Amino acid sequence: MTPWLTFIRGGDWLVAGLAAVAVAVSFPLLWRGGQADRAVIRVDGRVFAEYPLDAPRRIDVPGPLGTTVVEIQPGRARVQSDPGPRQYCVRQGWLHRGGAVAICAPNHVSLMLTGRQAGYDSLNY
Amino acid sequence: MTTHTIELQVTPADRRVARYAAAAIALTVAEAAIPTPLPGIKPGLANIVVLVVLARHGWREAAWVSLLRVVAGSLLVGQFLAPGFFLSLTGALLSLGVLAVAMRLPARWFGPVSQSILAAFAHIGGQVLLARLWLVPHDGVFYLVPVFALFALVFGVINGLIAARLLREEKM
Question: B154 touching A, CB under 8 A?
């Protein structure tokens, strides 16, 4: 049996090498884009507060039903507790990517992450 | 033997194309049974046939085999005119376009492996572009590109090696 390597010609190595480089480059290029760097908290659609995602923080956000607690840690944020009945925004857990949103509709509070380039836009999509 | 009122003139090339296309279709159907973690990731074994036809009989017949494979294969799998069919058609057309250029590279240095890799990338590129323009009009589609590209490279190399081997055996 002919060894498989003999089927690869000089230029084939070049093409395969360039393709491998393209694949390697595409991972960081396309997967890092959505990284978030700021958290925007809105009440009734108006910006209530905006924080960079660099240090741990807890923010109490007053709404019509009570206090929604937002927790920020380096690189991520979440709604820690909310007075709403169904707890959707709390159960969403940690948000990591730019454009990610947790909406606590009953309490009129939303938490949104923004990045240099938002990977996706949950609200408009 | 009955006499036919309509006689279809069948050239040897037609028979060849039909035979190769049948092989490609069989591979497509066999491949549809393989479970994949992500829609869009497939070995693309039918492309081996296209590469062999390209080397033996030129681009025109390769194009016939490739397009017959897409149409008949989708009919058999029940995907005809479904989104998957158009994705596959776009991929096939783009990869035929790339092959038309790649086959003109000097054969001394660039063999079926190069053609296979380039065709695999064209295939996935065409599918992602159509998906972006039509099915999921959002940049989120590109999030999957690195994974697709990685598999295009792996299967491109493997298919190219198999095609090169088949072509070598014929020469011996």
Answer: no
